């Protein structure tokens, strides 16, 4: 891989051990994937934040790097932590877990990274432009950035994203290159898509079928909401490893040019039934309802507050979101409506990376295909999957109905 004179000096350690370690990671990745050079990035999103996933070994790795004086050079935000950083005690998290999680966040702060923990960084200020190169790590955020925003990123690992933040560059391969961004799968949608759960079920089916391929959708109604698009991308990233998709006449690159390769495969979606069946267990009683995976938008919080006004919940309800949106909900009175019903707006975390099994949760209802895909293995819970109304009714009634 060709390096500039300054990049060679960093690799040789002439600008310190911290930058040298970061450059070694970037060069190793570049060599593995055949990158010709490094390119500047506009922003970074770092994964490996929850102590549940990071563990002591990961924390020690971060501490050692921070001790060497590493500082980020570009706008950088974090993936969700393992708990709400402020409300953890009232939500039942143990002091031992909380102490370790707070130490992880403090360590990231030493890199110059603010404690903004979200899988939807594009909703809270980390918003790249069409064509900008970035280095993001969380799968649904990568999908949204590549597909809906038209930015360019590979799915980074935690260390490689942090290395990119410290150097301000990443290796130029994969989705950073124009030639690698065209679709090799045509998805013909021939069924009705009503709500975010339908988009999630569609994404689940497509991801299962095509793996890491790039899909091009035809037949999706024009002007789907941002919430539906993030549900679609998150589901494909969870059931497969789709990091980029195009929708005819909707996503920016598909509007600008032909993004479907001439030599492509074709898949028809005639029904979403199989997706719903695969994402659902047979459990009826619901311990917890989780909304906001990826993190809830302002519109989703508003819809929940409106539906719950004057009602009481039998099951635990979490609406997970970025902490700035949680603060706005508090100031606007939306949080009060949700709390009066018995629910929580939860900042900073996601139930997938949170130790919810330690809180006694054994069954879960969600409108997120991503959460429904991951929760059985990551959290050891039974899952019911449905739309927002079904999930809120399950929280009110304590059981899930078709």
Structural notes for this entry:
With 402 residues, this protein is of the alpha/beta class. 42% of the residues lie in helices and 15% in strands. The protein contains 15 helices and 14 strands. The strands form 4 sheets. It has a 5-stranded parallel beta sheet, with helices on both faces. Strands 8-7-6-9 form a 4-stranded parallel beta sheet. It has a 3-stranded parallel beta sheet with strand order 3-2-4. Helix 2 packs across helix 6 (158-167). The longest helix is centred in the first third of the chain and has 17 residues, at 17-33.
- Round the mean pLDDT to the nearest integer and report it: 96
The total count of strands amounts to: 14
Whole-Å distance between the termini? 56 Å
- What is the chain-wise order of helices and strands? HHEEHEHEHHEEHEHEHEHEHEHHEEHEH
How would you sum up the global shape?
A: globular
- Helix- and strand-based class? alpha/beta
- The CATH class of the largest domain, by name, is Alpha Beta
Radius of gyration: 21 Å
CATH superfamily of the largest domain: Aconitase, domain 3
User: How many H/I helices?
Assistant: 15
Unreliable residue runs = none
Note the main sheet.
5 strands, parallel
- Total domain units: 3
How would you sum up this structure in a few lines?
The chain has 15 helices and 14 strands. It is an alpha/beta fold and 402 residues long.
State the main characteristics.
single chain; alpha/beta; Aconitase, domain 3; 3 domains; five-stranded parallel sheet; four-stranded parallel sheet; 15 helices; 42% helix
């Amino acid at each position: 891989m060709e390096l500039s004179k300054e990049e060679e000096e960093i690799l040789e350690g002439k600008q310190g051990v911290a930058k040298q370690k970061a450059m070694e990671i970037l060069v190793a990745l570049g060599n593995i994937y055949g990158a010709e050079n490094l390119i500047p990035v506009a922003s970074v999103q770092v994964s490996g934040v929850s102590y549940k996933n990071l563990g002591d070994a990961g924390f020690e790795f971060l501490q050692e790097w921070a001790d060497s004086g590493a500082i980020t050079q570009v706008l950088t935000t974090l993936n969700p932590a393992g708990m709400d950083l402020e409300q953890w005690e009232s939500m039942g998290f143990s002091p031992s877990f909380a102490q370790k999680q707070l130490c992880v966040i403090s360590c990231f702060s030493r890199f110059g990274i603010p404690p903004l923990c979200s899988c939807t960084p594009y909703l809270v200020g980390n918003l790249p432009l069409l064509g900008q190169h970035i280095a993001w790590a969380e799968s649904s955020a990568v999908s949204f950035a590549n597909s809906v925003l038209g930015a360019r990123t590979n799915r980074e690992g935690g260390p490689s994203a942090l290395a990119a933040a410290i150097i301000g560059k990443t290796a130029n391969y994969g989705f950073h290159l124009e030639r690698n961004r065209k679709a090799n799968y045509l998805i013909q949608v021939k069924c009705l898509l009503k709500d975010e759960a339908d988009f999630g079920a569609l994404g689940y089916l497509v991801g299962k079928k095509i793996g890491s391929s790039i899909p091009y959708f035809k037949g999706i109604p024009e002007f789907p909401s941002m919430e539906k698009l993030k549900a679609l991308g998150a589901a494909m990233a969870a059931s497969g490893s789709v990091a980029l998709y195009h929708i005819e006449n909707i996503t920016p690159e598909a509007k600008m040019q032909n993004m479907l390769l001439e030599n492509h495969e074709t898949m028809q979606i005639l029904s979403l039934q199989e997706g719903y069946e695969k994402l659902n267990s047979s459990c009826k009683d619901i311990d917890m309802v989780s909304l906001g995976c990826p993190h809830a938008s302002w519109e989703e919080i508003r819809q929940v507050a409106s539906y719950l006004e004057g009602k009481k919940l039998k099951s635990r309800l979490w609406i997970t979101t970025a902490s700035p949106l949680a603060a706005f909900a508090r100031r606007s009175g939306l949080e009060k409506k949700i709390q009066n019903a018995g629910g929580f707006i939860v900042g900073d975390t996601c139930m997938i990376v949170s130790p919810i099994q330690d809180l006694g949760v054994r069954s879960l209802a969600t409108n997120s295909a991503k959460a429904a895909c991951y929760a059985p293995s990551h959290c050891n819970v039974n899952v019911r999957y449905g739309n927002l109304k079904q999930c809120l009714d399950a929280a009110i009634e304590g059981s899930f109905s078709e």
